[in-house]
Structure formats: structure tokens, C-alpha cells
């Protein structure tokens, strides 16, 4: 029952105020006023006498039609009886003379009406019971509007969540000049104060009533839908262990337990070691004066020949013959070194000729800049699906966007952007290109825009220019719930037609337009927006590609500076005396490491040897370890080529593996030849920078005596570093800390998230940085999602139609019904709305119940008005026949939506079907569009793609139909679905390859296993963000300390193709920190001079116990590894910190800096301790006989 609230008013809707105005006007016109008239020219004034008029009669009118009185100081006129009666009918109190003509009275009478004694409606209270309201709401809440693929309640009820909100939306009073109720209607359910009122409590049929035949999409509670359950929110929690107030994951807890057990075992073993006799780990007695001989060699002092021969003949030297591989490598490097030393110019010529010939291939060099060709495997599922979608339907539009937003001040929320000034700004922006006329907006103002936000599907004036409704969530952003008028951002989208690219030039005109668009935005639109105190970000389809191209050259100077700094450091390191400032050789950081080791090995040779012997002996000493390190790096980089992404595969094969191989070949050829020439230059007394100039022989002689003992770094390794690591307590701490870090890394590496942030790959000053921030902040809808059906059989004999549609008589578990159910749980399905169905709308469009839709002429052709296409009797079970379907489908796709029929398919479904060959009853491809939920993180993109594919696979099996989901970003995010599998496979294959190489070269399974374990620990520490963070705290100076700990976002490292390649490459680079020390631990060399120009080169294997051999390895190679590998890489990497590109900083500076630090710690601290405790055992052979030296001499 309804109660009417009343009010009195004038006829036509006036009120008391208007009546008072009418009386005042009549008194002003009819009575003799005490006023004065002013002429229109403003030059004279007329002051009437008592009883005279100021104005009388009508003389003219204004441009808008309103009349103007005459200036006439005439005496007031007594009206005749008829005129007086007319005046008194309007105002009975006027009886005397008047200053008014009949024409003036008629004009006034038309504008003023007398107050009527009537009551008008001011509001209605419509009483309903809460039961009725809830049942009505529940019956309608899930009904969807197919064309817009959204729920009808979103626009019919303003997105109401209950019946009270719905009825409040229906009964609200419309603003002036707006469509809606002229008065307020409320729907109270409390009748305590109105006992005579009986609230409405009519019977409501539930949408699930079988008689209504509602589909599952419109009514999930329907009886035919009971067999299909709604998706449930995943509430499963990972395994955890609770200890008091602490809660730890099972994996973390297990690792802690295993670590503590291992630590106890290690402590127990150390205790047993102390209780047993000393030397239990030594298998042989150390060679007498062995260390003295090595130190003597290192210091450059040549022992007396006779004494050496006597010692070699009498001392009980314990030695072993090297393996076949080692013998072959030693023989090869000895002969190779001798040849290069004798023919340096020939070697240099060949070294220059070969690379020159290889450069001929640059003629066919082409730069690939298309992202889908760089980051997507040609055989990937996503690439195939995109190709199918583009070729059968249409490529998705090229998207150009502007995001305008208000700014928050003082910590308050950003104000709404929906106001008159900002709306007019949009017209100004549009006029820059489209030349739109804002007159239509001026006629209705901001109120009409706000009205259309709520009635964008029901009011014709709110439709787009092509008569299609526009969802406000796609053009507004930053609003709470469905309160569109509180939006804080406008999202302006320009869809540009796209074409399938085969050679990369098909969209040339669109790209040119986009670049002009970007320039227009920067130069003209941005200042306009800033003048309105708004912010703006923008993007075009080609923006990312253009910015990546700009980035490719932005850091060229940084890279050049990196090499210059690195080469300056090398010249300082290698040039420890004026006569040995070597020529710089352009190579990679990997090559620089080996160059330093080669130079240090040459310097360690006795000065008494001739140049050929020094070069060949140095190559024999370090050649095998350099070969091992280089070969391991080449294979490690080559393993990365199994990554399916073209960019990383090509980089791994050519930029890394081939480059390292060529580096190695040039190092042992061209660089050795340069060393020979430089030594000859020094012996000839020529200056390095000016080889034509000579210095005095006395200066050269004084320079030759500069080798007074070991360099500072070598003395530190021998006298400080190695002895400290020899203490048992230090060994225990080292093992405990490094193993603990490795266990922590295992736990922390599982927290790595897949993805590659778009902002990271762009320059820091890119305009797209703000755009991606605004997308994450303001967007209320995600990317479009299409479910594509292959080979849809629409014939009457097929069941495909009922398996897909969601209207009456469709299957309860049809595709569209299931999509609608998935949209009810967007947290897990990432589907925001039911799908827009061309099939549902087509079937409704042909239905006789759709009065204003499908019509035809008498001759059977399509006609927008009058006659229906079908009667109910023309359909078979409510479905068109195959012939009818085939005939009317093109009509539907060409029908514009209108107020009479909103189901027209033109525009909404123009690209949703592939009609090629559909006359045979098969539609090759058809798409059903919905939207993903807003995707703000990389994990959201990955999870949404996985959820869509899982759902599509499930439905394909259940319905026995071929289908797949498609969205524009799938092609770039497919790699992350199996990124963990790819990472583990790459790392394991790389570690296995390096292990095999180490075993073949060293012929020691024991040593190869130790190297493998150390490499695995280095990779684990790199994968764990917290361990890397500890090593990098010194450079992340712009973050406060409290924000650094425990936050992977600071490093910004995610698991993707770049980081996987870096991890695999790090194995190859980390080999350098291990193999040189291990090789020096297993082998060291002594030179015995028998007589001038004749030497005996003796390779001694496993001399001394593990402790002494570890010290010897650090003394021999520790300084070279630290200065030639650690510091060289460190100097080159630090410069990358100043790169403009964030991807350089995150994935190269941070990761490689962490690799250098972690590799140094493992190679020069952890590995020597492990070797001293459980290094490869000695291989004891019988002592050398006296005749062996002479037999071995050359």
C-alpha cells in the first residue's frame, strides 16, 4: 500500500513563492508607481507627477522576444468594464486607475497564473514486507545483460547488493531535466506508526521455478543447475609447523632440523679428530724443502745449478705421472707456447685475419625489434593460438590510452574528477584530433553525464555514436564500488585497427599515427591537463617497442665507461713495474680474468730462463685450468640455448658461448703473442707508449732488479689469509656459516616469484613508467578475455548450440553458464563478468518475443521495421533450423542496436565470428568475450592465464568441443607457467656438463664432486634474495635500513628468462673461482736448471698433506684469483650501477655483483677449507731415479 505525501501549489507546478511574485508584478504594472523611467539611450530621465504613469503601452521587443514598454508620462487610465473584470479575475484587489493597456495585460496573463487550491504529490511511501523485497531481489540479482556481458542489476539497480539498495535506486527522485521519477519513492517495511497500512506481500516466483525456464546463467539456483557447483575459493594452506607463537613452513622447519643434525655430526667429527694422532689425514710424508722450492721460484730467485741437480738426485721426491689428458694438454701447451714465442707476428696476423673473415657475416645481419619475435618461441601454444585468433577473427586493436587523474593533497583521498570543468577539458582534448562539437554536452551539462553512468544501457541518449552501451568501468577509474560519480580518473582509449604482421611493415601507417599522437600529447595535451591541476599518463601500442629501442642505446656510454675503467685497472694490476706495462687487449670480462692469470704465470717464471721457455712453462702451468674454466663457461652458456625464447637463446649461443670460445682462442694465441712482443720491447729498452723511443741500458738494468720478493697481495695470501683459514675454529665457523647460508637459500629460493616487471625493462625516464603506475592504481577492469570455439556446428542435428548458449533450453553446464559461474568467484577464476554471447543475442534477436528485432520484407529480405521474421510455429523446439540460422546470421551481424531492439550485433560482434565457409553448417571460429579482473602484479597475469587455461581444458573435455582462451598478454606470459621447471632443468644440465668437463680434464672424481658442490651452493645463494641482499646492502643507500631486510622488492629480481640465463651463466663464471684453486691444490710445478739453455720441467702431483697443499694453492693462485678475477669483475660491474635502464641495474649489476662477492667468498674462503679437510688424496708413486732428470732433459 502506498501513502502519498501532499503539498499545495499553483497550477502547473507553482507554489506560494510564485503567487507572491505574481501579485507584486500586477501591483507594479497596474497601480500608479512612485518611480521614474529611464530611456533606453540612458541620456534623460522622466519623473512622473502624482497620478501619472512612468510607462504606458508596448513599443518594441528585445532580441529574445520579450516586450519593452513605452516611456510615457501619461495620466493613469480608468479601464472599461470588461477590461476591469479581466484585471479583477487575476487580482480582485485592483479597482482603480491603471497604467496598463490590454496588450500589456495579455502579456502578463500569459506569464502568470493564479494559485489553484490543489494538492500535488511530493513523495510516496510504498510499504513492502522484507520477505517480498528479498525474494524479488534474489530472483533478479543474477540476470545478465548479454550484449554488455554484465549483470542487469549493475545498471537496473546501480549495482545493488540487497533489496533495500535496489529499491532505493528505483525510487530516487530525478534531478531537473533528467529521466526518472519526479518525486521520491521510499519502500519502508516498518508499519509500527501506520497501523492502517497493509504492506505488499505478494507471492514471488523464484527464478528457479521450473515454469519460468530460466537459464543457469540468469539463475544459478535453478533446479537444472544443481549438478554444477560454483567454484570455491581456495582455502588450502601450505604445510606449517607451529612452535609456541612462531609458525614456520614445513620446508623451513625440515631444513633447520637437517642443518642442526649435520652441524652436530661435524662437531662430533672434529672432536674425534682432536683425540686421534696428528697427521691422520696425511697419506704421504711431505717433500723435504718442497715449499721452499716453490717459494724460491715465486720470488724469482734462481738456485745454483749444481745444488739443484744434487738435490734432485738425492732427495726422496714423491711424485706421480699425470693422467693421459693432463699429459696431452701439457705437451700441447708446451709446444704451442714455444711456437707462439718464436713466431708472434705470424700468430697475430692469423688472429686478425680469422675474425675479419668472420665479420663478413655481418652483411646478412638484421635487427629484430618485434617483442613477440624476441620473447616468444615460434612453436609455443600461445603463439599458435594468437596466430589462429588473428587469422580467423581479427587481430586485437592497437590500444592508445590517456589516463587523467586528480591528485590527493595533505594525505586525503583524491577528489572526484567528474565535474564540469574536467568534462569540458575532455572535449578540448578530443578536438585536437576528432574536432568534436561539445554543444550536445553544453545542453545538458554534468548532470546528464552522471545520469548516464547509471543508465548507460537503458537510455538512448547515453549510447555511443554507434548505438552501443559503454561500461563506465572502462572509461572511469579510482571509484569505490559502483559509485562512478566519485571516480578520480578518466581513462580515454583510442582503439586503432590492427593488421596481421608477416614482414613487420603492415602497420606502418598506424605506427606513424601513434608517433604523431605521442608528440601531440607531449606538446599540446599535457600542458592543457596540467593547467587544470590534473595529472596525465599515456601510452600507444608502439610505445614499448620505441622505448626499448631508445634504451638499447641509452647505456652505450655506461658500458664503454665500464670497459675503460676495467682496462685501466688491468694496466695498473699487470704493470707492476715500468718495463711490463702490457698492451691492452679488447675482450670481455671473462677474457680479462684469464689474461691476468696468464700474465701472473709468466711473471712467476725464473728470470734466468729465456723467453720461449718462460712462455711455454707458463702455458703448461695455467693452460689446463684456463681451458677447463673456458670450456665450462662455453658449455654453460650453450646450455642456456635450450631456453625456448629466441632472445635468450641467440644471446646464449652467440653473444656468450661463441664469444667466450673466441676469447679463449685469442687469449692463448694473440694475447700470448702480444706478451712476447712486449717482453722483447722491454728487453730492447723501448717505451711501451712510444716503442720507437729507447731508454738507457742502465734504466733497463735497474728495472730488471725490481723483483724483490712477492707482491703485497701474494704476501697477504701466503702469510695472513692462508694461515687464518688453517685454524680449526675458523674452519668450523666457515663450514657452519656457508652451509647455513645454503640451507637458508634453499628455503628462500622457493619464495621467488615468476615474472618480469614491465617498468624494469624501460628507461627510468620513460613516460611509460607513470602509465603503468596509473594502470595499477586506477583501472577497475582487466584485459579482455576471449573463449574461442573451433568448428562450431550450428546445424539442427548438432548439440553444439545448447552446449554453448545460456538462455532458456540451454544445457545447465553449457560454456556460457559455466563462465557466468566462474565470474562469481573472481578471486580464483580471474574472470570479472559473464561473457558477451553473440549466440544468445542472435537466438533472442530471432525470437518472436523480441518485437522490434528480426523483421523482413515480403520478398524475404531484411527490413528494420514491421513484420516479424518468425512465428513461434516457425521454430523447432525454440531453435531455428539450419537454413534459418544460415540465412539470418548475416542480418543479425549487420543490425544496429536501437531503443526498440538492443540485440543488434553490428559493432559488438562484428569480429566475433569467422563466416568463411559457414554455409556448410560449420563456423570455423567464434569468440565469446569477457574480462579478466584487474591485474596489478606479474603473478596476477601468470595466475589468470593458468586459471583460464585450466577452465578451458576442463570445459573442452566435458563438452567434447575444441576451445582455448585468448588474451593479448598470454603470448608474453606463457613462459612463466613452466619457469621453475625450465630453471631447474637448465641449472641441473649445466651443473652436470661442468661436472663432466671437470672430471675429464682433472681425471679426479673427488675434485669434480667438490667443484660441483661449491657451484651448486653459489647458485643457491644467488637464487635466495635475502642472501644477495646481505651482500648488496652497501650500495642500496637510498633505502632506509628498516626497509631493506626481508624485502625482495628492493632487489626487484624475479624468476624469468633473463634471470635463468644469468643463473646458468653464473655457473660458468663461478667455475673460475674454483678450478684454478683446485688445480693448484692438485698440481704444482718446480723448475730444475741443469745447464744453460736446458731445463727439466717437473710436474709434481699431490705433494704434502691437505693442509700444506691448500696453503700452497692459496699462495700460488689466490692473488691471481682475487686480483685477476674478483677485482676485475668488480670494477667492471660497479659502473653498471649508474645505467639508465633499470634492467641493467637489477639483472646485471645486482646479480653479477652478488655473483662476484659470493664467488669470491666460496672460492677463496670456503673451497680452501673444504680442500684442507677432505680434498683429493695424494697419488703416491715411487721416487724419481737419478737418471730421470738427464733422460727428461731436452
TrEMBL record:
Domain of life: Eukaryota
GO cellular component, one term: membrane
Membrane topology per record: Multi-pass membrane protein
Protein name: SSD domain-containing protein
Keywords tagged on the record: Disulfide bond, Glycoprotein, Lipid transport, Membrane, Signal, Transmembrane, Transmembrane helix, Transport
Organism, scientific name: Oryza glaberrima (African rice)
Residue span(s) of domain SSD: 585-677
Biological-process GO terms, alphabetical: sterol transport
Keyword set includes Transcription regulation: no
Transmembrane segments: 253-272, 344-363, 556-574, 654-677, 729-749, 983-1003, 1009-1038, 1050-1071, 1077-1097, 1118-1139, 1151-1174
Signal sequence, renumbered to the chain: 1-37
Molecular function via GO: sterol binding
Lineage summary: Eukaryota, Viridiplantae, Streptophyta, Embryophyta, Tracheophyta
Family to which this protein belongs: Belongs to the patched family.
UniProt xrefs under Pfam families: NPC1_MLD, NPC1_N, Sterol-sensing
Location(s), subcellular: Membrane
InterPro entries per the UniProt record, alphabetical: HMGCR/SNAP/NPC1-like_SSD, NPC1_MLD, NPC1_N, SSD
Amino acid at each position: 500500500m502506498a501513502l502519498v505525501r501532499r503539498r499545495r501549489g499553483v497550477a502547473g507546478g507553482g507554489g506560494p513563492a510564485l503567487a507572491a511574485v505574481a501579485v507584486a508584478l500586477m501591483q507594479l504594472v497596474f497601480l500608479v508607481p512612485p518611480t521614474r523611467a529611464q530611456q533606453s539611450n540612458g541620456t534623460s530621465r522622466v519623473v512622473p507627477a502624482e497620478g501619472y504613469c512612468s510607462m504606458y503601452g508596448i513599443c518594441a521587443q528585445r532580441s529574445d522576444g520579450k516586450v519593452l514598454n513605452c516611456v510615457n508620462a501619461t495620466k493613469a487610465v480608468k479601464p472599461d468594464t470588461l477590461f476591469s473584470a479581466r484585471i479583477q479575475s487575476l487580482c480582485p484587489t485592483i479597482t482603480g486607475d491603471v497604467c496598463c493597456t490590454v496588450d500589456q495585460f495579455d502579456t502578463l496573463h500569459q506569464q502568470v497564473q493564479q494559485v489553484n487550491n490543489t494538492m500535488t504529490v511530493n513523495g510516496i511511501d510504498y510499504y513492502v514486507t522484507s520477505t517480498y523485497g528479498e525474494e524479488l531481489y534474489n530472483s533478479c540479482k543474477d540476470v545478465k545483460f548479454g550484449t554488455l556481458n554484465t549483470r542487469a542489476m549493475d545498471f537496473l539497480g546501480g549495482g545493488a547488493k540487497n533489496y533495500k539498495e535496489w529499491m532505493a535506486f528505483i525510487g530516487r527522485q530525478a534531478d531537473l531535466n533528467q529521466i526518472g521519477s519526479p518525486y521520491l519513492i521510499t519502500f519502508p517495511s516498518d508499519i509500527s506508526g501506520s497501523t492502517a497500512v497493509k504492506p505488499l506481500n505478494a507471492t514471488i516466483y523464484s527464478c528457479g521455478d521450473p515454469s519460468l525456464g530460466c537459464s543457469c546463467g540468469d539463475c544459478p539456483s535453478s533446479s537444472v543447475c544443481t549438478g554444477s557447483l560454483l567454484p570455491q575459493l581456495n582455502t588450502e594452506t601450505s604445510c606449517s609447523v607451529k612452535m609456541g607463537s612462531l609458525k614456520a613452513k614445513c620446508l623451513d622447519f625440515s631444513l633447520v632440523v637437517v642443518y642442526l643434525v649435520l652441524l652436530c655430526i661435524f662437531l662430533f667429527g672434529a672432536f674425534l679428530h682432536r683425540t686421534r694422532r696428528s697427521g691422520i689425514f696425511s697419506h704421504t710424508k711431505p717433500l723435504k724443502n718442497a715449499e721452499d722450492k716453490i717459494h724460491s721460484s715465486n720470488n724469482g730467485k734462481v738456485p745454483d745449478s749444481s745444488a739443484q741437480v744434487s738435490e734432485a738426485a738425492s732427495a726422496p721426491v714423491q711424485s706421480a705421472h699425470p693422467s693421459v689428458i693432463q699429459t696431452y694438454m701439457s705437451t700441447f701447451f708446451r709446444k704451442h707456447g714455444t711456437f707462439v714465442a718464436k713466431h708472434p707476428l705470424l700468430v697475430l696476423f692469423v688472429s686478425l685475419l680469422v675474425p675479419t673473415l668472420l665479420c663478413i657475416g655481418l652483411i646478412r645481419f638484421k635487427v629484430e625489434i618485434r617483442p613477440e619475435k624476441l620473447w616468444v618461441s615460434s612453436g609455443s601454444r600461445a603463439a599458435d593460438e594468437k596466430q589462429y585468433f588473428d587469422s580467423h577473427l581479427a587481430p586485437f586493436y592497437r590500444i592508445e590510452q590517456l589516463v587523467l587523474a586528480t591528485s590527493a593533497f595533505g594525505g586525503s583521498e583524491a577528489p572526484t574528477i567528474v565535474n564540469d570543468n574536467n568534462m569540458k577539458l575532455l572535449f578540448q582534448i578530443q578536438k585536437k584530433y576528432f574536432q568534436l562539437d561539445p554543444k550536445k554536452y553544453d545542453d545538458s551539462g554534468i548532470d546528464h553525464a552522471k545520469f548516464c553512468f547509471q543508465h548507460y544501457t537503458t537510455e538512448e541518449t547515453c549510447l555511443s555514436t554507434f548505438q552501443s552501451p559503454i561500461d563506465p568501468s572502462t572509461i572511469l577509474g579510482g571509484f569505490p564500488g559502483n559509485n562512478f560519480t566519485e571516480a578520480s580518473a578518466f581513462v580515454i582509449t583510442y582503439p586503432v585497427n590492427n593488421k596481421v604482421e608477416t614482414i613487420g611493415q603492415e602497420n606502418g601507417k598506424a605506427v606513424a599515427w601513434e608517433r604523431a599522437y605521442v608528440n601531440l600529447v607531449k606538446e599540446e595535451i599535457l600542458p592543457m591537463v596540467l593547467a587544470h591541476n590534473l595529472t596525465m599518463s599515456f601510452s600507444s601500442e608502439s610505445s614499448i617497442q620505441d622505448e626499448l629501442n631508445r634504451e638499447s642505446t641509452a647505456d652505450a656510454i655506461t658500458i664503454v665507461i665500464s670497459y675503460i675503467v676495467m682496462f685501466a685497472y688491468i694496466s695498473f694490476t699487470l704493470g707492476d713495474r715500468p718495463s711490463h706495462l702490457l698492451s691492452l687487449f679488447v675482450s670481455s670480462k671473462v677474457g680479462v680474468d684469464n689474461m691476468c692469470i696468464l700474465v701472473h704465470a709468466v711473471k712467476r717464471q725464473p728470470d734466468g730462463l729465456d723467453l720461449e721457455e718462460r712462455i711455454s712453462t707458463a702455458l703448461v702451468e695455467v693452460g689446463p685450468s684456463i681451458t677447463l674454466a673456458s670450456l665450462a663457461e662455453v658449455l654453460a652458456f650453450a646450455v642456456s640455448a635450450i631456453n625456448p625464447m629466441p632472445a635468450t637463446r641467440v644471446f646464449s649461443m652467440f653473444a656468450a658461448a661463441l664469444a667466450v670460445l673466441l676469447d679463449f682462442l685469442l687469449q692463448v694465441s694473440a694475447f700470448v703473442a702480444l706478451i712476447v712482443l712486449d717482453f722483447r720491447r722491454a728487453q730492447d729498452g723501448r717505451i711501451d707508449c712510444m716503442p720507437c723511443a729507447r731508454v738507457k741500458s742502465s734504466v733497463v738494468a735497474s728495472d730488471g732488479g725490481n723483483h724483490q720478493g712477492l707482491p703485497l697481495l701474494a704476501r697477504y695470501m701466503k702469510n695472513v689469509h692462508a694461515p687464518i683459514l688453517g685454524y680449526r675454529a675458523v674452519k668450523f665457523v666457515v663450514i657452519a656459516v656457508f652451509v647455513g647460508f645454503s640451507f637458508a637459500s634453499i628455503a628462500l629460493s622457493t619464495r621467488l616469484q615468476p615474472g618480469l616487471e614491465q617498468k624494469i625493462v624501460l628507461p627510468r625516464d620513460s613516460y611509460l613508467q607513470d602509465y603503468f603506475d596509473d594502470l595499477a592504481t586506477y583501472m577497475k577492469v582487466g584485459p579482455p578475455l576471449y573463449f574461442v570455439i573451433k568448428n562450431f556446428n550450428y546445424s539442427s542435428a548438432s548439440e553444439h548450440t545448447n552446449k554453448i548458449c545460456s538462455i532458456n533450453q540451454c544445457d545447465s553446464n553449457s560454456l556460457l553458464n559455466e563462465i557466468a559461474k566462474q565470474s562469481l568467484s573472481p578471486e580464483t577464476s580471474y574472470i570479472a563478468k559473464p561473457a558477451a554471447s553473440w549466440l544468445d543475442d542472435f537466438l533472442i534477436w530471432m525470437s518472436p518475443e523480441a518485437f522490434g528485432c528480426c523483421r523482413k520484407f515480403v520478398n524475404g529480405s531484411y527490413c528494420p521495421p514491421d513484420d516479424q521474421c518468425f512465428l513461434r510455429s516457425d521454430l523447432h523446439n525454440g531453435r531455428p533450423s539450419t537454413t534459418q540460422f544460415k540465412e539470418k546470421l548475416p542480418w543479425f551481424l549487420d543490425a544496429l542496436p536501437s531503443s526498440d531492439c538492443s540485440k543488434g550485433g553490428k559493432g559488438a560482434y562484428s569480429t566475433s565470428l569467422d563466416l568463411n565457409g559457414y554455409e556448410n553448417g560449420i563456423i570455423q571460429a567464434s569468440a565469446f568475450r569477457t574480462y579478466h579482473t584487474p591485474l596489478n602484479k606479474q603473478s596476477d597475469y601468470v595466475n589468470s592465464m593458468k586459471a583460464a587455461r585450466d577452465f578451458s581444458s576442463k570445459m573442452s573435455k566435458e563438452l567434447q568441443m575444441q576451445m582455448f582462451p585468448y588474451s593479448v598478454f598470454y603470448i608474453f606470459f606463457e613462459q612463466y607457467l613452466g619457469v621453475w621447471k625450465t630453471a631447474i632443468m637448465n641449472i641441473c644440465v649445466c651443473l652436470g656438463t661442468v661436472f663432466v668437463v671437470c672430471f675429464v680434464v682433472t681425471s679426479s672424481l673427488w675434485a669434480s664432486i667438490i667443484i660441483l658442490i661449491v657451484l651448486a651452493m653459489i647458485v643457491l645463494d644467488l637464487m635466495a634474495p635475502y642472501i644477495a641482499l646481505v651482500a648488496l646492502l652497501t650500495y642500496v643507500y637510498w633505502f632506509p635500513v628498516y626497509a631493506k631486510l626481508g624485502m625482495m622488492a628492493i632487489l626487484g629480481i624475479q624468476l624469468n628468462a633473463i634471470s635463468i640465463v644469468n643463473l646458468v651463466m653464473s655457473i660458468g663464471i663461478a667455475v673460475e673461482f674454483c678450478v684454478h684453486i683446485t688445480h693448484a691444490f692438485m698440481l704444482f710445478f718446480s723448475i730444475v736448471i741443469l745447464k744453460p739453455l736446458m731445463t727439466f720441467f717437473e710436474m709434481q702431483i699431490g705433494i704434502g698433506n691437505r693442509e700444506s697443499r691448500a696453503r700452497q694453492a692459496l699462495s700460488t693462485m689466490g692473488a691471481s684469483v682475487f686480483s685477476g678475477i674478483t677485482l676485475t669483475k668488480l670494477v667492471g660491474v660497479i659502473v653498471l650501477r649508474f645505467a639508465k635502464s633499470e634492467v641493467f641495474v637489477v639483472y646485471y649489476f645486482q646479480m653479477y655483483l652478488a655473483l662476484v662477492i659470493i664467488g669470491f667468498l666460496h672460492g677463496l674462503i670456503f673451497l680452501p677449507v673444504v680442500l684442507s679437510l677432505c680434498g683429493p688424496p695424494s697419488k703416491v708413486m715411487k721416487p724419481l731415479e737419478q737418471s730421470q732428470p738427464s733422460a727428461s732433459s731436452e
